[in-house]
Amino acid sequence: MLRKYSIKFFLLLSRNEINTKLNDITDLIQAKDKNHRFVHISCLLLQLAATPKKIENGVRPKQFRLPKTHRLFESLGNIIVSSFHDVSDRQWTPMMESAFDVIFKLADGPIKHIENIIKKLAVKTGVKVGGLFKIPLASQSQPAFVEPMDFENAGSEQSQTQTQSSSHHSQATSNSALMLVRFLNCLGKAAVGIVYYVDCTVKDELLRRKEAKQTSRTNQKLQPKQRKSNKKRAKRKTPDEDEEMNETTASSNLTLNSTTNQTIDDDQDDEMCQVFGGAEAEDPVDNEIGLYIQSLCEKTSLLMQYKNILEQILLHPQEYREEALQLSATICLCKFMLLSVELCETHAKMLFDLLKNSTFESVRVAIMILMNDFYLKYPLAFAAYSNDVYGCLRDRSDNVRLAALKTISNLILKEMVKPKGQISEIALCIIDKHPQIATLATSFFSELAKRQHGEALFNILPDIFSNLVGGHLDKDRQLDEEDFKTIMEFLFKYVSKEKQTESLSEKLCQRFHMADNNPRLWRDLAYIMSKLSYNERSLKGLLDHYNYYADKLVEDAVYESFLSIVNNAKKLLGNKPDLKVVLDELANRIEQARSSSGILMAVQQAQQKVKQQPKVPKTKKGKATNSRSKAKASQSDDDDDDDESKENDDDDDDDENNFQRSVKKETKFARTTSRSKRNAAVNSRKKATLAASDDDDDDD
Known about the structure:
The protein has 32 helices and no strands. By secondary structure, the chain is mostly helical.
């Protein structure tokens, strides 16, 4: 039966009889008002009438709109309100959304219709305009009141009454929560509908009127010139041609005037003229749109008066801890934030607190999905929260990580977000345990390698390996060497150009020169260098920068990586005689670094680097006032002198070192004994003075 009505509906639309058959369509919807699926499909088909027409001859056509008083909109509103309480009907929400779309796309002045529907739904939900809403949850519910009874005969009756009342209370609580969820869905859909109405309908109408006025002014300027040319031609034409010319000119003028009047002198009872009047010609269209949005987002507007309900639910998750309610409130808040950049910036902190702290996976997933809309409409509003967005790639939930990766990769590929240092978080997704996340990450880098002739990926590679080398990402995470090799092997297969290899090789050599005493860092850098395809110039660069990594060749993995570089180069480029000399020289130096003299030289260089490190200056606590502080200072100076003499005399034999150690022990022992004697003398003097003072007190 439903299919039969749908086919009949589609035939009406395909014959382009939507304007003449609207009453019949409305009658069909009213007749099937209980069948929400039919109403939903009917509304989807009705939206085809609002499809914008193509611009012809440089003239923007006027959009099709039905009058405010058309009974189609009243019928849709009645169906939404009358079936609002039936929370078991799963077709109600899609029916409501499609009905709202019809009102926004076809009604002249749709916001008034939507506000009337929301007011009626608020009454059914129990929400007051501008007031807080308190919903009794099952976890907070009090036991039902039981009247005094005859305890001798009412044992079983009391328990049965309590069971029935508690189940009834639980059912009522569940229904009230679901009705609130539905109401929040209506608010969110209304906010999105307003965004669409303003960005598409209102803006398009303002542009149409502005272009029409510009066209009329241009035509008015051309009319005098056309009359002069007609007079000149009239002198050369016969009387019959003059009559034809006059008729043609008159008809063209009538057509032009009628078109202009029809374009400019639109009906003044529609919402566009009530809001904007005739100011769109003098002021830019964007300014007018901004003022209109500002009026819709004022505190006195209907939608903004219900905004505090969202804040109450989201700021008190312990009271409203049902997942469906938290999810609906979060989505509704996001849709409210799309109305204006001021609302977006005001509630950004609350939104990202939910993204980090919400215990519900569905809430975090929904926020990440809606990030696409935020960055599309307000690209700079969340610039300060980019770390939080990338941080979702480390979320404990697979679904959140997957949603975050889809959102971030989509924004980067559409060039709405520039990849920065956080791009290494996406590289870590290559080794994610979830197969879909790992596949999506590899697909992202493969697509990025195709952009800008490979430069898009090459430009972010230094940021990736600078954050991943060394094995320490942050305090909570560590990347083992095998996973690091997997990531780098995948990424560096896209580096094939000679200039890219030369640039990366030089940067890695410089990073070797600046590296501290971290063997893991040496191994990671050497592995990256082994994955490059070297040419003659890059191999000469390795030879020129030999001193940057010579002392690191004592590490076996570093030595093997550089040895593989030489062996691979010999296979590919060994036929060139000039390059063969370079390769032999590089191989000899690498082998020399592994000899005993080379290892000794590396140790000496490491010691020299330690000596060259600046010492931390000691803070002065003030001048020493007693002999004991002076003795400590002199003793520390002596110890420093002894340490310096020990560093300078590293080449002496073991006997001399043992002798110096024994001398140091003796001097330290003498100092400690003299200090102990001094302390004993001071203590004896103190005791003597105390005894003398006691004797004087006794004499008195």
